[in-house]
Amino acid sequence: MNKFQFLGRLTRDPESRVLPNSNTPVTTFSLAVNRRFADANGERKTDFFNLTAFGKLADFCAKYYRKGQQVLVEGRIQNRSWDDQNGQKRYATDFIIENAYFADSRRDQDTSDGVPSSSMDGEFITVDDTDDLPF
Protein backbone atom coordinates (compact mmCIF):
# COMPACT_ATOMS: atom_id res chain seq x y z
CA MET A 1 0.00 0.00 0.00
CA ASN A 2 1.36 3.42 -0.99
CA LYS A 3 -0.23 6.01 1.29
CA PHE A 4 0.76 9.06 3.33
CA GLN A 5 -1.20 11.23 5.74
CA PHE A 6 0.10 14.60 6.99
CA LEU A 7 -1.36 17.04 9.49
CA GLY A 8 0.46 20.35 9.40
CA ARG A 9 0.47 24.04 8.56
CA LEU A 10 1.00 25.64 5.17
CA THR A 11 4.32 27.47 5.02
CA ARG A 12 3.21 29.62 2.06
CA ASP A 13 0.14 30.26 -0.06
CA PRO A 14 -0.47 27.57 -2.71
CA GLU A 15 0.85 28.19 -6.22
CA SER A 16 -1.26 27.18 -9.22
CA ARG A 17 -0.61 26.60 -12.88
CA VAL A 18 -2.09 24.62 -15.77
CA LEU A 19 -0.21 21.83 -17.55
CA PRO A 20 0.18 23.00 -21.17
CA ASN A 21 -0.43 19.70 -22.96
CA SER A 22 -3.45 18.50 -20.99
CA ASN A 23 -4.98 21.73 -19.57
CA THR A 24 -4.90 20.05 -16.13
CA PRO A 25 -4.78 22.38 -13.10
CA VAL A 26 -1.82 21.78 -10.75
CA THR A 27 -1.37 23.32 -7.30
CA THR A 28 1.72 23.01 -5.12
CA PHE A 29 2.39 24.07 -1.54
CA SER A 30 4.65 23.25 1.37
CA LEU A 31 3.45 21.79 4.66
CA ALA A 32 5.27 21.96 8.02
CA VAL A 33 4.61 18.74 9.97
CA ASN A 34 5.72 18.36 13.59
CA ARG A 35 7.29 15.05 14.52
CA ARG A 36 5.40 13.01 17.06
CA PHE A 37 8.21 12.66 19.60
CA ALA A 38 10.78 15.04 21.04
CA ASP A 39 14.52 14.54 20.54
CA ALA A 40 17.06 13.97 23.34
CA ASN A 41 16.99 17.70 24.19
CA GLY A 42 13.20 17.69 24.55
CA GLU A 43 12.67 19.57 21.29
CA ARG A 44 10.16 18.53 18.68
CA LYS A 45 11.53 18.69 15.15
CA THR A 46 9.52 19.77 12.14
CA ASP A 47 9.65 18.25 8.65
CA PHE A 48 8.72 20.22 5.55
CA PHE A 49 7.02 18.47 2.63
CA ASN A 50 6.32 19.80 -0.85
CA LEU A 51 2.91 18.58 -2.00
CA THR A 52 1.16 18.52 -5.37
CA ALA A 53 -2.55 18.33 -6.22
CA PHE A 54 -4.09 17.86 -9.67
CA GLY A 55 -7.48 18.59 -11.24
CA LYS A 56 -10.44 19.69 -9.12
CA LEU A 57 -8.50 19.07 -5.91
CA ALA A 58 -5.83 21.48 -7.20
CA ASP A 59 -8.53 24.11 -7.75
CA PHE A 60 -9.90 23.50 -4.23
CA CYS A 61 -6.48 23.88 -2.57
CA ALA A 62 -5.69 27.04 -4.56
CA LYS A 63 -9.02 28.62 -3.70
CA TYR A 64 -9.35 27.79 0.00
CA TYR A 65 -5.89 27.10 1.47
CA ARG A 66 -3.72 29.92 2.85
CA LYS A 67 -0.35 30.28 4.58
CA GLY A 68 -0.51 29.33 8.28
CA GLN A 69 -3.67 27.25 7.94
CA GLN A 70 -3.70 23.79 9.49
CA VAL A 71 -4.75 21.07 7.06
CA LEU A 72 -4.87 17.29 6.78
CA VAL A 73 -3.83 15.78 3.46
CA GLU A 74 -3.70 12.19 2.25
CA GLY A 75 -2.22 10.74 -0.88
CA ARG A 76 0.43 8.63 -2.53
CA ILE A 77 4.19 8.86 -2.84
CA GLN A 78 5.61 8.78 -6.34
CA ASN A 79 9.23 8.43 -7.48
CA ARG A 80 10.55 9.78 -10.76
CA SER A 81 13.92 10.04 -12.45
CA TRP A 82 15.45 11.97 -15.36
CA ASP A 83 18.79 12.85 -16.88
CA ASP A 84 19.92 16.42 -16.21
CA GLN A 85 21.79 18.72 -18.65
CA ASN A 86 25.11 17.07 -17.73
CA GLY A 87 23.81 13.55 -18.33
CA GLN A 88 23.63 12.79 -14.59
CA LYS A 89 20.73 10.66 -13.38
CA ARG A 90 18.49 12.65 -11.00
CA TYR A 91 15.75 11.36 -8.71
CA ALA A 92 12.82 12.99 -6.94
CA THR A 93 10.12 11.82 -4.58
CA ASP A 94 6.73 13.51 -5.03
CA PHE A 95 3.83 13.61 -2.58
CA ILE A 96 0.63 13.58 -4.65
CA ILE A 97 -2.48 14.68 -2.74
CA GLU A 98 -5.62 12.59 -3.23
CA ASN A 99 -7.72 14.00 -0.33
CA ALA A 100 -7.49 17.32 1.50
CA TYR A 101 -9.32 18.58 4.59
CA PHE A 102 -9.43 21.65 6.83
CA ALA A 103 -7.99 20.96 10.30
CA ASP A 104 -8.36 24.38 11.98
CA SER A 105 -11.44 25.01 14.06
CA ARG A 106 -14.22 26.94 12.34
CA ARG A 107 -13.69 29.74 14.83
CA ASP A 108 -10.03 30.06 13.74
CA GLN A 109 -11.02 30.16 10.08
CA ASP A 110 -13.67 32.88 10.51
CA THR A 111 -11.80 36.17 10.47
CA SER A 112 -12.67 39.81 10.28
CA ASP A 113 -9.86 42.28 9.63
CA GLY A 114 -7.40 39.37 9.86
CA VAL A 115 -8.20 38.70 13.53
CA PRO A 116 -9.71 35.33 14.49
CA SER A 117 -13.25 35.63 15.76
CA SER A 118 -13.73 34.99 19.45
CA SER A 119 -17.52 35.11 19.32
CA MET A 120 -19.18 32.01 20.70
CA ASP A 121 -22.72 32.93 19.59
CA GLY A 122 -24.94 29.92 20.14
CA GLU A 123 -22.15 27.37 20.30
CA PHE A 124 -22.55 26.52 23.99
CA ILE A 125 -25.47 26.17 26.36
CA THR A 126 -25.45 26.65 30.11
CA VAL A 127 -25.89 23.43 32.06
CA ASP A 128 -27.11 23.45 35.65
CA ASP A 129 -24.50 21.27 37.37
CA THR A 130 -26.38 21.08 40.69
CA ASP A 131 -28.65 18.29 39.41
CA ASP A 132 -27.54 14.70 39.06
CA LEU A 133 -26.80 13.55 35.55
CA PRO A 134 -29.41 11.14 34.14
CA PHE A 135 -26.87 8.42 33.34
- Stretches with pLDDT under 50, minimum 5 residues: 111-128
Please, how many helices?
2
Sheet-strand content, in percent, reads over 45%
In CATH, the topology is named OB fold (Dihydrolipoamide Acetyltransferase, E2P)
Shape: globular
* Rg for CA atoms: 21 Å
**Do you know the CATH architecture?**
Beta Barrel
Sheet with the most strands: spatial strand order: 1-3-4-6-5
Question: Helix/strand/pairing class, anyone?
Answer: mainly beta
Number of structurally distinct domains: 1
- What's the CATH superfamily, by name? Nucleic acid-binding proteins
User: In sequence order, what are the helices and strands, one letter per element?
Assistant: EEEEHEEHEE
CATH class: Mainly Beta
Helix content: 10-25%
Question: How many beta strands in the DSSP annotation?
Answer: 8
Concise description?
The protein is mainly beta. It has two helices and eight strands. The chain has one domain: Nucleic acid-binding proteins (OB fold (Dihydrolipoamide Acetyltransferase, E2P)), CATH 2.40.50.
What does this structure look like?
By secondary structure, the protein is mainly β. It has one domain (4-116): Nucleic acid-binding proteins (OB fold (Dihydrolipoamide Acetyltransferase, E2P)). It has two helices and eight strands, in the order ββββαββαββ. It has helices at 55-64, 106-109; strands spanning 4-10, 15-18, 25-38, 44-54, 70-83, 89-102, 111-112, 115-116. A five-stranded mixed barrel has the order 1-3-4-6-5. It has a two-stranded antiparallel ribbon with strand order 7-8. The protein is globular. Residues 111-128 have low confidence and may be disordered.
